[in-house]
Design a protein that fits this description.
Shape of chain B: rod-shaped
Helix content of chain A: over 70%
Distance between the termini of chain B: 45 Å
Largest sheet of chain B: 2 strands, antiparallel
Distance between the termini of chain A: 60 Å
Strand content of chain B: 5-15%
Number of domains of chain B: 2
Shape of chain A: elongated
Order of helices and strands of chain A: HHHHH
Oligomer: heterodimer
Strand content of chain A: under 5%
Order of helices and strands of chain B: HHHEE
Helix content of chain B: 40-55%
Number of strands of chain B: 2
Radius of gyration of chain A: 32 Å
Strand order of the largest sheet of chain B: 1-2
């Protein structure tokens, strides 16, 4: 299907739904283009066959819609987390690359000392962190 | 400590890879649990393995709480069902 036909068939779909008026240009195109004419006839047939249905009779289960929204929000969140993880990995590689460079130029000893200090002092902060979280949770 | 120059280069490489892996895992886990992922992620890059242990203790001992979407009471984020109204909560992402 050429680009022109594809574009015209999108316009025909809008005309069928009443979102666009049937202009002279469109009707002229339908007169000489068999492909678009066939598509238009198909749309008309479909509209005719669907006219028997009444929208009000269809019962919409709100739980299905809610669950669809929930699933989509979870998927959006997951994709965002993945994107953030990639950004974080790139930043981390850069930071650790700098650390590697420091080791290479002779700051290995200072880095080891810093690691040992952190290893002993970070666990000491655990009770404070837990207390902070409990207080925050209780204030909510 | 005076023999720090004797440490082979591949051991430094292993340390850097471990820090990277630890930071990325903490970041991913924190984002799934609704924690401050950036803060915890960079915290995970500082030291191995004590920072991982600290992260596990802090986030597992005091699990974050959220409001139940149905009854509004505070419940733990990891709960799949509200203990007050029994309604199903969000699935973990």
């Amino acid at each position: 299907m050429s680009f022109k036909h594809e574009k015209m068939q999108k316009v025909l779909l809008d005309v069928c739904y009443g979102e666009m008026p049937m202009t002279e240009e469109i009707s002229k195109h339908l007169d000489y283009c068999s492909e678009c004419k066939a598509y238009w006839n198909e749309l008309m047939l479909l509209r005719e066959s669907m006219s028997g249905f009444n929208d009000n009779e269809i019962e919409i289960d709100s739980s299905i819609i809610n669950s669809a929204f929930l699933k989509s929000s979870i998927e959006i969140k997951r994709r965002k987390n993945l994107k953030d993880l990639i950004i974080f990995s790139v930043i981390s590689v850069l930071l650790l690359g700098m650390l590697g460079l420091l080791i290479y130029v002779g700051y290995g000893r200072s880095i080891i000392v810093a690691q040992i200090i952190l290893m002993f002092f970070v666990p000491l902060s655990v009770p404070f962190m837990i207390r902070q979280r409990i207080m925050k949770e209780e204030s909510l | 400590m005076s023999d720090v120059k004797d440490i082979p280069l591949y051991l430094w490489f292993v340390l850097i890879v471990l820090l990277l892996a630890q930071g990325c895992w903490i970041f991913w886990d924190a984002s799934k649990r609704g924690e401050n992922k950036w803060l915890w992620g960079f915290f995970g890059l500082l030291n191995v393995p004590s920072n991982l242990i600290v992260y596990l203790i802090v986030t597992r001992v005091v699990s974050k709480s959220v409001s139940c979407k149905f009854c509004g009471k505070r419940i733990r984020m990891s709960y799949k069902y509200c203990p007050y109204c029994g309604e199903k909560q969000n699935i973990e992402t």
